[in-house]
Amino acid sequence: MLHKITSLTVRDVRFPTSLEQHGSDAMHTDPDYSVAYVVLDTDCGLKGFGLTFTVGKGTEIVVCAVEAVAGLVVGKSLQEIVSDFRGFYRLLTSDGQMRWLGPEKGVIHLAIAAVLNAVWDLWARAEGKPLWKLLVDMDPKQIVSCIDFRYITDALTEEEAVEILVKAQEGKQRREEHMLKEGYPAYTTSCAWLGYSDQLLKQLCTDALKSGWTKFKVKVGADLEDDKRRCRLMRQMIGPDNTLMIDANQRWDVAEAISWVSSLAEFKPLWVEEPTSPDDILGHAAISKALAPLGIGVATGEQCHNRVMFKQFLQASALQFVQIDSCRLGSVNENLAVLLMAHKFQVPVCPHAGGVGLCELVQHLILFDYICVSGSLGNRMCEYVDHLHEHFTSPVVIHDAHYMPPKDPGYSCEMLESSVQSHQYPEGDVWTRPAAGTEKKSK
Ligand SMILES: [Mg+2]
């Protein structure tokens, strides 16, 4: 069967999470978690589902960008695409006219991520495997053939990438079995969103500890005295041996980041995440250097545009934790490049997740990283946020604070049709029915 793609539909789906301050941080004070949701139809009835994540307003712009690239996908067969996936990636990212909108960054790149995520989902479904297993079963040359090495060969060549993957074949089977049995270690961000009260934070923390969580992240950056109080409270709750991370979501200038985080050093955070502009590579390098003596690393990546930026962060020793994102980069193809570069530079990958569907997607990539690239769990963990999983047909399974490997074929981002319809913006029930005295922020 050819699996010829006959149509691409995209919908604007939004969840009113701002009503309860879920997801709130120092810069995104009232996010309505949203997705541009893509469905590919094929001539044989198989479908591919993909999405990219946004925080509310402007999702319609991403939808429009997806529609702009749809013509490059519809009419192609899955076989045609995956037999030259590098070429197809470049077709989407380097269209002679549309690349002016990026290139490989911003709205157009988010849109391409949604489309490519759907193509990968379709491929995994056609093979009857969860996406992580599709990747694990590929031979090194085939994996590398999906990556566009343009702009990164000064840091990682195709030959080096193959070498890394070949070397990691040893012990692969054992690591796959380990993951199937134990799962991949996770940390939680659900306890300490910036808009949560101390009482709610304490309650959520107590519940999380009871469920086996040992690694926690706190949002910081709005007010230093508040941050000290919240970090102290969190440290008291979790004890001296559990892991604490702090996340400023790009709030500070470089010098401010250094002094602010130094004031929080007594709470022993493992890392500070996004201390400053996500584009400021040299700023991150300066912060990394200043915080190293305090034992605090710098983590970033959820708004890192592309593999070229990650390359420079790594070359400049500007981060100590690489936070890949399944919807910011150009899907699996570009994430593979970053995983391999991170391995070469010996920097652990700790993916960004949460939002809508990000946990469902990125778990596949980090499983692949452990089984086929890094072979290590040292200083590695995947973010987890306990919101909105009920809207997916194959939601993540967390057991004892570990992601259990998905078993269903695909990339785990198919949503329940009833959820899509009721949350479609602006016509879905959630957005049109009288809202019991609440204000919907997205509009
Ligand atoms: Mg973050």
Automatic annotation (TrEMBL):
One of its GO terms (biological process) is carbohydrate catabolic process. The keyword ATP-binding does not apply. SUPFAM superfamilies: Enolase C-terminal domain-like, Enolase N-terminal domain-like. Its EC number is 4.2.1.68. It comes from the Eukaryota. Residues 198-294 form the Mandelate racemase/muconate lactonizing enzyme C-terminal domain. Keywords: Lyase, Magnesium, Metal-binding. It catalyses: L-fuconate = 2-dehydro-3-deoxy-L-fuconate + H2O. CDD domains: rTSbeta_L-fuconate_dehydratase (cd03324). Coiled coil: none annotated. Its cofactor is Mg(2+). It is an enzyme of class 4 (lyase). Residues 424-443 are annotated as: Disordered. Gene3D superfamilies: Enolase-like C-terminal domain (3.20.20.120), Enolase-like, N-terminal domain (3.30.390.10). GO terms for molecular function: L-fuconate dehydratase activity; magnesium ion binding. Belongs to the mandelate racemase/muconate lactonizing enzyme family. ENOSF1 subfamily. PANTHER family: ENOLASE SUPERFAMILY, MANDELATE RACEMASE (PTHR13794), MITOCHONDRIAL ENOLASE SUPERFAMILY MEMBER 1 (PTHR13794:SF58). This is Mitochondrial enolase superfamily member 1.
